[in-house]
TrEMBL record, chain A:
Location (main, coarse): cytoplasm
Source species of the chain: Adineta steineri
Gene Ontology, cellular component aspect: cytoplasm
WD repeat locations: 130-152
Family matches, as PANTHER family: MRNA EXPORT FACTOR AND BUB3
Recorded coiled-coil stretches: none
Cleavable signal peptide: none
GO biological process, one term: apoptotic process
Name this protein carries in UniProt: Dynein axonemal assembly factor 10
Superkingdom classification of source: Eukaryota
Xref: InterPro entries: WD40/YVTN_repeat-like_dom_sf, WD40_repeat_CS, WD40_repeat_dom_sf, WD40_rpt
The protein's role, per its UniProt record: Key assembly factor specifically required for the stability of axonemal dynein heavy chains in cytoplasm.
Automatic annotation (TrEMBL), chain B:
Protein name: CS domain-containing protein
Membrane spanning stretches: none
Phylogenetic lineage: Eukaryota, Metazoa, Spiralia, Gnathifera, Rotifera
Gene3D superfamilies named among the record's database cross-references: 2.60.40.790, Tetratricopeptide repeat domain (1.25.40.10)
InterPro entries: CS_dom (IPR007052), Dynein_assembly_factor_4 (IPR052004), HSP20-like_chaperone (IPR008978), TPR-like_helical_dom_sf (IPR011990), TPR_rpt (IPR019734)
Biological processes annotated in GO: cilium movement; inner dynein arm assembly; outer dynein arm assembly
Keyword vocabulary terms for this entry: Coiled coil, TPR repeat
TPR repeats: from-to residues: 350-383
Organism, scientific name: Adineta steineri
Pfam families: CS
Signal peptide positions on this chain: none
Coiled-coil regions listed in the entry: 94-133
Residue ranges annotated for the CS domain, each copy included: 3-87
Length: 355, 404
C-alpha cells in the first residue's frame, strides 16, 4: 500500500459532451467546456464542496467549445480563459463577465483542435501568448494586444497538402526571449518551432497520429516532452541533447490498449505524469533518468540517452475515452477529468510525495 | 509352487496369541499378510502359512514383526479367554476352509473400502476447511485494503475541506490586496468610492475598477514559418498497424493503372483513357442503354484488367438486365481486387457486397444473399437500410425453412 493510489473523489453527470476541463487558478473550482446536442457551446463552472461536485454556473454560447486554457491569464486573481471553438474562433473570456468575450478572432478556417497558453499567471517570462492548432493544418500564436492577426503562424508551405494539427504546446520559456512551440499532426509528424529564430528546430515522425504533446515544464529550459498517440503508444523525449541527425532520444511505452488521448505532468513533480486512454483508463507514470543523460559517440558528437518509465498506478473509471485531464496547481494530487460518457470527475492521487 | 509351512510355534495368554512362523531364509521385504477377524495368511514366496483361527481376534490391534528369521504375529483376542488350540475345529474340512477364506477376503475388501471412504471424506472435509480458511484470509486482506482506502478517503475529504476554506480565505485576501493596490494607485479623485462586492459566483451587476495590469514584455514581431509534412496519400490519420496494408493497396492501385500492353489492337487515345471510358459507360447507364454500357466496361476491362470499379459497375449493369449470375461473378471479381481491406476501399467493398447480396436474392439463393448482407453490415454497422434488408432476408429464410 505504499504505491500512490488514485481515488475517485466524486463525479457528476452533465447533459452535453465535455471536451475540456480546467481548474480555475487559486480556487476549488473548475470549468468544463463542451458541446450540447443542439450544437451550442457549454461553459459550466463547478465547485468541490463536501465530497461532492456542485454546479455553480451554467453558460451557453452560440458555438460549441473544443478546448480552453488559463495559461495567458494576466494574474491569478483576474482569470482569463482562452477558448477555441468548432468554427475556428479563438476567444478570451473574463470569468467575472461572461456575456461577451474580451477578445475574439476567427483565427482558423476549421475547428481548433488544441490550445495552449504561456506567460500568464505569474509563471515564466515573456509576453503572454496563446497557441492554437487546427484542422486546417495551421498553428497560430496570438497575443491579446494584437487583434485580428496572429503574431506568428506555422502554415503548410506552398503546394503542400495540409494535415490535421491535433496537438500544440509551449516550452523552453526560461527567459523573456526564448520560447518554443511543439505541434503534433495526424500523420505522426512532431515539429518543434523556435519562436526566437522563427525556424523549425526539430521535426520527426512517430508513425502514429499525435493526440497530445506536453513539456514537463513550460518555463524552464526544455527538459522532457511527452507525446501520446494512436495505437496505445506513449513517447517521452529527452530534450536536453539534440543530435544533428538523430534528433532527441526517446523511450516508447505501450499502454491502455487503445488510443492514448492525454498526457499531463504533475505540476509539483515534473517526472510524474498521468496518461488517459480511449478505454477510460488512467495510468500514472514516473520517468527515471538514466545514469548519464548524454553519451559521446565515436565521431565526438553528443547524443542524448533516454531513461525508463515505471507505471506507478492505474485505474479504470469509465468505458468511454477520457477527453480531458487537469492537475490542480494548488493541491498536489487533485485532478479533474472528463470523459465522453458525459461525466466530469474529480480524482485524488495519494502518496505522491513518497515517489 | 507354494509351500505350506506347518512347523510353527505358538503361545497364548488371556488377551494375546503369539505365533512364530519360521521365515526359512526368505526375504523380509517379500512378506505379504492377509488377515481378517478369524483368518490369517502369511506368505513369503515360495512359502505360505494360513490358519483358520479358533476364535475371533481384533484385526486392527494385532501386530506382525519380523525377528531373528521368524515372523512373530501378535494377535489380540476379541474375547479374552484361553483358546487352548490355535486352529478352528473345522480347519481340515476343505470346503469349510474355502468358505472361510472367501469370507476373510470379503471382509478385508470391505475393510479396505471403508478405510478408503473414511480417507476420502476426511480429505473432503480438509479441503473444505482449507477453502474456508483461504476465503477468510482473502476477506481479511480485502477488508484491510478497504479500511486503508477508506482512511485515505476520509483524510482527503478533511484535507479538501481545509483546501476549499483556505482558497476562499486566500481569494478574499487577494481581492482585498488588489483593491487596496488599485485604490492607492489612483492619484486623481475622479474615482468615487464604489462599493465593490466580490462574490464567489459570477454575478452580472457588480461594477469593477478596470485596471490593466502592465504587460511589460513587448509584442512579438509577426513571423511565419512554412511547414512541410511527411507525405501521406490517405487523408486519414496514420496508424502503425495499418501502414503495411495501406502500402500494399497503393501498390495495387498503381499496378492497375498500367494498361495491358499485351493487346495488339490499334486503339485511339480516347479508348485507352480509363476516365473517358468510365464516363462513356456511365452515360449509357444513365440513358438506360445497359448493353452498350456493358460493352464499354468489357472493353475497358480488357485494357485495365485490375481496376475493381470497372467490374463493380459492370455488375450493376448486368443486374439491370437481369443477368444475375454475371452480376455475381463481376461483384466477386471486384471484391477479390479490393484486397487488402483498408479504409480507402471501404465504400466500394460495401457496395459490392450489397449488390452481390441482392443478386443472390434475385436468384433465390437467400442464404448466400444473407451472408453478403451480413458482411456489408459488419463493414458499415450504422447503415439502417442494410440492417433492415438483412433482417427481412433472415425472416424470409426462417419462414421458409426447408426441413429436409
Amino acid at each position: 500500500m505504499d504505491k500512490p493510489q488514485i481515488i475517485l473523489h466524486s463525479q457528476k453527470s452533465v447533459n452535453y459532451t465535455v471536451f475540456d476541463v480546467k481548474w480555475i487558478p487559486t480556487s476549488a473550482k473548475f470549468i468544463s467546456l463542451g458541446n450540447h446536442a443542439r450544437g451550442t457551446g457549454a461553459l459550466d463552472i463547478f465547485e468541490i464542496t463536501h465530497g461532492d461536485i456542485a454546479l455553480i454556473a451554467q453558460h451557453e454560447k452560440p458555438t460549441a467549445f473544443k478546448c480552453g486554457t488559463f495559461g495567458a491569464s494576466p494574474s491569478r486573481e483576474r482569470r482569463h480563459l482562452a477558448t477555441g471553438n468548432f468554427d475556428g474562433y479563438i476567444q478570451v473570456w473574463d470569468l467575472e463577465k461572461l456575456e461577451k468575450p474580451i477578445y475574439s478572432v476567427k483565427g482558423h478556417t476549421e475547428i481548433i483542435n488544441a490550445i495552449d497558453a504561456i506567460g500568464g499567471l505569474g509563471v515564466g517570462e515573456g509576453a503572454p501568448e496563446i497557441a492554437t492548432a487546427s484542422r486546417d493544418g495551421r498553428v497560430h500564436i496570438w497575443d491579446t494586444r494584437q487583434a485580428d492577426l496572429p503574431v506568428a503562424s506555422m502554415e503548410p508551405a506552398e503546394g503542400e497538402t495540409k494535415r490535421d494539427c491535433w496537438a500544440v504546446c509551449f516550452g523552453n520559456s526560461f527567459n523573456s526571449s526564448e520560447r518554443v512551440v511543439c505541434a503534433g499532426y495526424d500523420n505522426g509528424d512532431v515539429k518543434l518551432f523556435d519562436l526566437r529564430t522563427m525556424s523549425i528546430r526539430w521535426e520527426t515522425n512517430i508513425k502514429n497520429g499525435v493526440c497530445c504533446l506536453e513539456f514537463d515544464r513550460k518555463d524552464i529550459e526544455m527538459n522532457k516532452l511527452v507525446a501520446t498517440t494512436l495505437e496505445s503508444k506513449i513517447h517521452v523525449f529527452d530534450m536536453r541533447t539534440q543530435h544533428v541527425e538523430k534528433g532527441f532520444a526517446s523511450v516508447v511505452e505501450k499502454a491502455h490498449n487503445s488510443t492514448v488521448w492525454i498526457g499531463r505532468h504533475l505540476p509539483q513533480n515534473r517526472d510524474v505524469f498521468m496518461t488517459c486512454g480511449g478505454s477510460g483508463s488512467y495510468y500514472l507514470w514516473k520517468y527515471n533518468y538514466p545514469e548519464n543523460r548524454v553519451k559521446t559517440q565515436t565521431d565526438k558528437t553528443e547524443v542524448g540517452v533516454a531513461g525508463t518509465l515505471t507505471l506507478l498506478q492505474n485505474i479504470g473509471l469509465s468505458t468511454q475515452p477520457a477527453s480531458a485531464f487537469d492537475w490542480s496547481p494548488d493541491k498536489p494530487g487533485l485532478a479533474c477529468t472528463s470523459a465522453f460518457d458525459q461525466t466530469v470527475r474529480v480524482l485524488i492521487t495519494t502518496k505522491l510525495n513518497s515517489i | 509352487m507354494p509351500v505350506i509351512i506347518r512347523d510353527i510355534n505358538w503361545e497364548e495368554t488371556d488377551i494375546n496369541l503369539v505365533l512364530h512362523i519360521p521365515m526359512k531364509g526368505a526375504k523380509a521385504t517379500k512378506l505379504d499378510v492377509l488377515s481378517s477377524d478369524q483368518y490369517l495368511k502369511v506368505s513369503f514366496s515360495p512359502y505360505f502359512y494360513e490358519v483358520f483361527l479358533h476364535d475371533l481376534i481384533d484385526d486392527d490391534k494385532s501386530r506382525i514383526i519380523i525377528q531373528d528369521g521368524f515372523v512373530e504375529a501378535t494377535l489380540t483376542k476379541q474375547y479374552p479367554r484361553k483358546w487352548n488350540q490355535l486352529s478352528h475345529s473345522q480347519s481340515d474340512d476343505k470346503e469349510a476352509m474355502k468358505i472361510v477364506r472367501e469370507d476373510a477376503l470379503r471382509q478385508i475388501a470391505e475393510k479396505q473400502k471403508q478405510r478408503h471412504e473414511a480417507n476420502a471424506s476426511l480429505l473432503n472435509t480438509n479441503k473444505r476447511e482449507a477453502v474456508r480458511e483461504q476465503m477468510k484470509l482473502e476477506e481479511d486482506e480485502r477488508n484491510r485494503i478497504d479500511t486503508i482506502k477508506k482512511t485515505e478517503r476520509d483524510k482527503i475529504s478533511d484535507e479538501m475541506q481545509q483546501f476549499e476554506d483556505n482558497q476562499k480565505i486566500q481569494r478574499q485576501v487577494a481581492i482585498q490586496n488588489h483593491v487596496h493596490a488599485v485604490q492607492s494607485q489612483k492619484k486623481v479623485d475622479e474615482i468615487e468610492k464604489k462599493k465593490i462586492i466580490f462574490e464567489e459566483n459570477t454575478s452580472k451587476e457588480n461594477s469593477r475598477i478596470n485596471v490593466e495590469p502592465k504587460i511589460t514584455a513587448p509584442l512579438r514581431e509577426t513571423g511565419r514559418i512554412a511547414v512541410n509534412f511527411t507525405s501521406r496519400v490517405f487523408p486519414t490519420p496514420l496508424r502503425e498497424s495499418q501502414t503495411e496494408m495501406e502500402d500494399e493497396w497503393l501498390r495495387k492501385q498503381i499496378d492497375s493503372r498500367q494498361y495491358n500492353t499485351d493487346l495488339q489492337l490499334d486503339l485511339s487515345e480516347n479508348e485507352k483513357d480509363i476516365d473517358y471510358l468510365k464516363t462513356k459507360a456511365n452515360q449509357f447507364f444513365q440513358q438506360g442503354n445497359f448493353q452498350s454500357a456493358i460493352g464499354v466496361y468489357s472493353h475497358a476491362i480488357r485494357i485495365f484488367p485490375k481496376v475493381a470499379i470497372l467490374y463493380s459497375n459492370r455488375g450493376a449493369c448486368h443486374f439491370q438486365v437481369r443477368n444475375m449470375m454475371k452480376c455475381v461473378e463481376d461483384c466477386s471479381r471486384a471484391l477479390e481486387l479490393l484486397d487488402p481491406p483498408v479504409l480507402d476501399n471501404l465504400p466500394q467493398r460495401i457496395k459490392a457486397h450489397v449488390r452481390r447480396g441482392t443478386a443472390f436474392c434475385e436468384l433465390e439463393l437467400y442464404a448466400e444473399g444473407l451472408l453478403d448482407y451480413e458482411a456489408a453490415l459488419t463493414l458499415s454497422p450504422d447503415d439502417e437500410k442494410i440492417r433492415q434488408d438483412a433482417q427481412r432476408i433472415r425472416n424470409f429464410l426462417e419462414k421458409n425453412q426447408d426441413f429436409s
